[in-house]
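Checklist before submission:
- one chain only
- standard amino acids only
- sequence pasted in full

Submission:
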Amino acid sequence: MRFSGKALFTVGAASALMLLSPSIASAAYYGSETDYATSSYPADVDQHWEYIGITGVGVSFTGLGDWFKVHDTKKDGYAAVVEWHDVDGTRSGACVSKLGGGTSGGCNKNFYEGHEIEFRAALYNNGTFVRASAWTHSYA
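Returned file contents:
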């Protein structure tokens, strides 16, 4: 079987575009930083957690170590997400839990001390925003 140079170039260009385009290669979550929650996070002992939630997801933040905790409270197939931004800086992002319904996960960030951090609980369906809570805030 013979391929023309034009056919190989077209296939190669399409493959390169898929690798370089974030909208094609990966889901688009809130902000410029996306982390995926792991099953490890600090215990509630000696931590002060700020909490907000909606049906299906609850999220918490503690300034002691700059941890987000994501509680996927419903087996509905949606990803439980913390959307956040640094009010005093330029950073924003998401902590995405794909650990499954009935689980909790955490993301560790490193914010400047004393910065105000706004965050909210959100649900996504295969990278597409579904709904979110109101914003709440805490301090790093």
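Reviewer check: Residues 28-139 form a domain with the Immunoglobulin-like fold (CATH 2.60.40.10).
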